Amino acid sequence: MAGREQLLEEILEIGIALTTEHDLYSLLERVLETARRFTGAEAGTLFLREGDHLRFAVVQNDFLQRKLGTVAMRERLQSEPLRLTEPSLAGHVAQTGEIVNVADAYAIGVHETRSLNRRFDAATEYVTRSVLAVPMHDLAGTNVGVLELLNALDDSGAIVPFDPEDERVIRALASQAAVAIRNARLEDLSFKDVSTELYNGRYFALRIDEEVKRHTRFGHPLSLVVLNIDHFQQLNTDHGTAAGDEVLREVARLLVKHSRSFTIIARLDGDGFAALLANTPKAGAVTYSQRIRGVIAAHPFAHGALTASFGVAGLPADAASAEDLIAAAQRALGDAKRLGRNRVAAL
User: Fold this and answer.
1) Residue 254 in contact with residue 293, Cβ under 8 Å?
2) What is the pLDDT of residue 223?
3) For strand 100-102 and strand 41-50, is the pairing parallel, antiparallel, or unpaired?
4) Distance CA 11, CA 8 (A)
5) What is the rounded CA–CA span in Å between residue 93 and residue 260?
6) pLDDT exceeds cutoff 60 at 2
7) pTM for this predicted structure
8) How far is the C-alpha of 256 from the C-alpha of 197, rounded, in Å?
9) pLDDT for residue 24 is more than 90
10) What span, in angstroms and rounded, lies between the C-alpha atoms of 150 and 41?
11) How many percent of the chain have pLDDT more than 70?
12) DSSP bridge pairs for 144
């Protein structure tokens, strides 16, 4: 476990980052990582409350990461939200606002709400023992989610209960996460495209600059996918702009549904869309684009089948700046159109 003074310094830095960091999920990852290191937790989840369920917004689990790999772990845990109608410790915290700190979740027994949901342990062969779960209250007192930590480990690696004295610090981190979520939701009012509810070009420009800077600093691969709906203007001419607007909304829904939660999907202009894939090499972005191309081609649109053309570019292979990356992806998109549309092209 890292020194307490260093971790408290990181908590202060997170507070400062709340006013400067536009990447909500990077900030939430940082909050959860700090909470885990402060308590020695083997795993943790940051849930966001959305209606009658909790969504796995950020998942960190050392055991499952070693077993499955980061991508497979996230896909398995984030594929299905946690319904508030089924018993779970996180659900209990979300609905009551109470802190839960238990030494052995399997010893609780069956309870109407305050019991371990064993579905995820069974699906992953993970064994949850000690649990610390705290609510994330925003400034209005609304519970926007839950910060849950699993299996505190001592210096020998044995699972131990979470120290009750750590609860105040974890509550402070949860409050910081809630502020970040509130800030992001306020930004949504100016960063969302009204028609499709995707991020707009303004937000996309900010995010691609941030991700390129992160690539420059840490060397993580970054890929950009741009796409256009094939013959979109002809669709508007034949069926009217209302039909075209519905197609844009439907394509937006397909992009969100078939992309990972941390992929940035934006509408650029007209029938142009973009997907920014952090920590993804160009080959992975090509695979992603081929999959989305097939999804769109197979979808039953109201006025008949539609296709899309895709351009892919990546750092560091094709560009050295955000501007160059966008230009490279657009050139690849032009190649896809010249080669007959309904295809993926990469530089």
Assistant:
1) no
2) 96
3) unpaired
4) 5
5) 26
6) no
7) 0.54
8) 10
9) no
10) 6
11) 90
12) none
**CA dist., res. 239 & res. 256, Å (int):** 25
- The H-assigned helical ranges of the chain are 4-17, 24-39, 62-68, 70-78, 89-96, 119-124, 167-191, 201-218, 232-239, 241-257, 282-298, 322-338
> Angle 167-191/201-218 helices, nearest 10 degrees?
130
What is the number of residues in the chain?
A: 347
Provide the pLDDT confidence category of residue 1 given band limits of 50, 70 and 90: very low
Residue that has been written with the tokens 């501007």 in this structure: 323
> In the structure encoding, which two tokens stand for residue 264, read together?
């940035």
**Residue 281 identity:** P
Contact present, 267 and 198 (Cβ < 8 Å) = yes
What digits encode the pLDDT tens for the residues 270-325? 999 999 999 899 999 999 999 999 999 999 999 999 999 999 999 999 998 999 99
DSSP one-letter string for 123-178: HHT-----EEEEEEE-TTS-EEEEEEEEEEE-TTS-EEPPPGGGHHHHHHHHHHHH
Where would I find the H helices in 19-60? 24-39
